[in-house]
Amino acid sequence: MRPIVFIALASPLLFTSCAPSGVSRREREPNRAEYAHRFYTCSAQIDSVLSDSAFTHAFIGIKVVSVRSGEELYELNSEKLFRPASNIKLFTAAAALALLGGDFEFKTEVFVVEQPGKRRPSLILKGHGDPLLTENDLDSLAAQVSASGIRDVEDLIADVSYFDNVCWGRGWMWDDDPGGDWPYISPLSVDRNVLKLIVAPGKSPGRSADVRFQRPVSSVCLTARVLTASDTTRSSLRMYRRWDGQNDTIVLEGVVPTAERPKLIEVTVRRPEMQALALFKEKLAIHGVSVAGTLRVEPEGGGHRIAFVAHRLDSVAVVLNRESYNLAAENVLKTLAAQRLGQPGTAAGGITLLKQYLQSMGIDTTALTLADGSGVSRYNLAAPSQIIQLLLAAQRDSSLRDTFIRSLPMAGMNGTLKNRMANGQAFGNARAKTGTHTDAVALSGYVTDAGGELLAFSIMFNHFVGNVPGYRTLQDRIVEILANCK
Is the peptide bond preceding residue 469 cis, with omega within 30 degrees of 0? Predict the structure, then answer.
């Protein structure tokens, strides 16, 4: 086992067991820490958490600083690179808010266009990357079309030229598909580009379970081989997509217990723009507009705009960070590129702009790896110290601070922290972005200690086996220590 180092002002170098070693800057500059003396006890408590045998084989990175002074209060391996998972969204959200502004609007538009040889006009549904577009928004668009006086149209055309045609992030895992957390990226995205399966036990053991889409779906086939079992208390399900020519088939296999309550499972939509057109056609019919021709995708261009809906970036940022919404992060990344570098927006272009923004804050982008905007990719690498630089810069930027901090989950109250740190001093106090892979968890944000000092922290655990919730609990204990420090 390697020792862990913690440093306090005017204190000797101390060691405890069971955690990786790290040399603190406080060892080199022992007289510059205004708060280190009172933080001494808190450091010892953090060391005690990290002495847990769960960290025998894990890699730990932590940094805690005072936001007011920038003083480093705790450090362990903070310059080392970790897989930050969804902590990458902190970079994406901050850069987008800074470069585009919180009032930037993601528009979805409807154009009417006359086509040669067709006696009816056609409608173009053009997406601009809005990750919050819903079925209700399509209903609003259909109502606007009807209010314009149009009653019959030839074709419905999806224009998705605002983004390139790369529908997944670099380094995403193929076997994560078709899980709802890995949606296909499109500038025309409705209801997060997922469908919902309802799974309920059958009437008796041995009978097939009731498996169906929450609403009728014509674009996806479903094959269910799920049995009802009385000899188990937990569901055991496997879902995968079968690639069969032009057919998009979802296969669900396994067992559900007889006492299981109906559950929802999210499934990705392989061609989101076609799903959007199909839903739009339904809404048009409700509002008295008939479609005689086909539904297709092409960069039509031109025409006269007769309807639009929009959502602001400040609203998108809240969903992006609080709910750790992957599609929002990827759409924001490509939108950055489309707005600043020209259409079509690409992930590579967005990452170039992201790095330029991070460089402007003093972050050495040659010492990290960015592969996507959401943190889904296993190629991403970042250090706790780099996350801290971002958190400090966001706090000191008056044009960014309030919107950025408001977008973060609040401990015990909302988002991905709704069920975490709900009973201690961190409750309603800590705001932090979570991050999770199968062998990586990250938690970075802000907490006010018992003395009224605002702290920025980044806690990353990588390369462990097994219990993700257990490692999250250990992160929460560290944040509680910070909240109680005085």
Answer: no
* Residues in the chain, total: 486
Beta strands in 210-332 (DSSP E): 210-213, 221-229, 236-244, 247-257, 263-268, 290-291, 295-297, 304-312
pTM, 2 dp: 0.89
SS3 letters across 401-436: HHHHHHCCCECCCCHHHCCCCCCCCCCCCCEEEEEE
Q: How many CA atoms lie within 13 A of 293 on its CB side?
A: 18
Query: In 3D, which of 59, 77, 68, 90 has the Cα closest to residue 444?
Result: 90
SS3 category, 396: helix
The per-residue pLDDT for range 22-64, each reduced to its tens digit, is 334 344 344 445 556 778 889 999 999 999 999 999 999 999 9
Determine contact, residues 109/305, Cβ cutoff 8 Å: yes
Q: In terms of domains, do 320 and 306 share one?
A: no
Residues 94 and 119 in one domain: no
Domain membership flag for residue 389 = yes
Q: Is there a single domain that holds both residue 464 and residue 412?
A: yes
Helices and strands, number each (H, E), in the chain: 11, 20
Catalytic residues: 86, 89, 324
